[in-house]
Specification:
Layout (H helix, E strand, L loop, with lengths): L10 E2 L2 E5 L8 H8 L8 H9 L3 E3 L2 E2 L12 E5 L17 E4 L3 E6 L16 H9 L13 E2 L8 E7 L2 H12 L4 E9 L7 H4 L4 E4 L3 E10 L7 E4 L5 E13 L3 E8 L6 H8 L18 H4 L1 H8 L6 E9 L6 E5 L4 H13 L1
Parallel strand pairs: 9-16
Antiparallel strand pairs: 1-2, 2-5, 3-4, 3-5, 6-7, 7-9, 8-9, 10-15, 10-16, 11-12, 12-13, 12-14, 14-15, 16-17
Helix pairs in contact: 1-2, 8-9
């Protein structure tokens, strides 16, 4: 498993510093593509351009050859372009608050809400809503009054999300996510039913079976080669280590099933990509679901129509547990199923 090494003296506002670990791709461009934090949003092609432009240096000297060999312990500085300005304004958007104190807030996010503003979606986001809701209770993240986003869920995924309101909470929560000690469980409705006895499933690289009917999926994930909005399973050492576990909670006549999924790592689109790779894509997933449809002969025309036109990926962040980063209290939260998700399960259950 590859990781990026950071220390307080290797971070500033304008650059990312990467220390090459013992296990890493041997070439500079490939190593940086794996090691840069996901939040930096630097694709391999962008990193290649940055190397050509002299934005990557070692020991104060620009390294202009992306094919240059790297060695364990070397520190590379990536000079970042100033970000495009995105004015983030408070907006009076209703929020479902599950927990709030002076250091953090737990939100039950609805479908359709983007977490963080971006040039394509500067308004109507969770951050806009939090700026209005929290107001002066934000004590500041990095010297600025803003909420600290330590993890995200996709726009059309519903459920629980914790956000820091103070620097001390931000650092503590980020450390727990980095160390994979945060408990996150999702509910998903997928095509067909993953079965431990399925030889096809057992034959897929990276998939193993654990006690209790648990399917463990361990792969590398990287940006898709031709579609930069998607993630893909790769095996060339250039991806990020990702582990998902899933178990069947309810089988709907073998044509669909309700799964409980939990993350050992938290990569972009991880559950969606892994379940698609396993041959059990999420219902309603426009990116990874393909053209697969439920059969009216099995479920009846009304239920099949409801399932086949479900307007989003059927994924819900149902439980969230972590240690309060300031008080040390163990906190655990549960989110009920949203109405559309509950209606989908009820229809499948009634037709099974």
């Amino acid at each position: 498993m590859l990781s990026t090494s950071f220390s307080d003296d290797l971070v500033d506002d304008d650059a990312i510093f990467i220390t090459i670990p013992e296990v890493a791709p041997p070439r500079l461009d490939k190593a940086l593509a794996v090691l840069v934090p996901e939040g930096a949003a630097l694709s391999r092609s962008r990193l290649a351009r940055m190397i050509d432009e002299g934005a990557v240096s070692r020991g104060g000297v620009a390294v202009l050859d992306g094919k240059a060999k790297v060695a364990t312990g070397e520190v590379y500085r990536i000079q970042l372009d100033p970000p495009d300005p995105v004015e983030t304004l408070p907006e009076d958007i209703p929020l479902t608050v599950i927990w709030e104190d002076g250091d953090l807030i737990v939100i039950d996010k609805p479908a359709g809400m983007v977490v963080h503003p971006a040039p394509g979606s500067p308004r109507g986001t969770l951050v806009n809503a939090l700026l209005h809701h929290c107001g002066d209770t934000l004590s500041g993240i990095g010297g600025e009054r803003r909420p600290g986003i330590v993890h995200r869920i996709d726009k059309d995924t519903t459920g629980l999300l914790v956000v820091a309101k103070s620097d001390r909470a931000h650092h503590g929560l980020a450390r727990q996510f980095e160390e994979h000690t945060v408990a996150r469980r999702y509910l998903a409705v997928v095509h067909a039913t993953p079965a431990a006895s399925d030889p096809r499933l057992r034959g897929l690289r990276g998939i193993t079976m654990e006690a209790g009917g648990i399917v463990r999926i361990a792969t590398e994930l990287a940006r898709h080669k031709t579609d930069r909005q998607r993630q893909a399973v790769v095996w060339d050492g250039a991806g990020r280590h990702a582990v998902t576990r899933a178990r069947v909670m309810e089988d709907f006549s073998g044509g669909a099933s309700l799964l409980e999924c939990w993350l050992e790592t938290g990569r972009t689109h991880q559950i969606r990509v892994h379940m698609s790779y396993a041959g059990h894509a999420l219902l309603g997933d426009p990116t990874y679901g393909g053209t697969r449809r439920l059969a009216p002969k099995i479920f009846g025309p009304d239920t099949a129509e409801l399932a086949n036109t479900f307007p989003r990926q059927a994924l819900h962040a149902a439980t969230l547990g972590f240690e309060h980063p300031v008080t040390g209290e163990n906190l655990s939260f549960t989110s009920p199923l949203p109405d559309d998700f509950a209606a989908l399960i009820a229809a499948l259950r009634g037709s099974a």
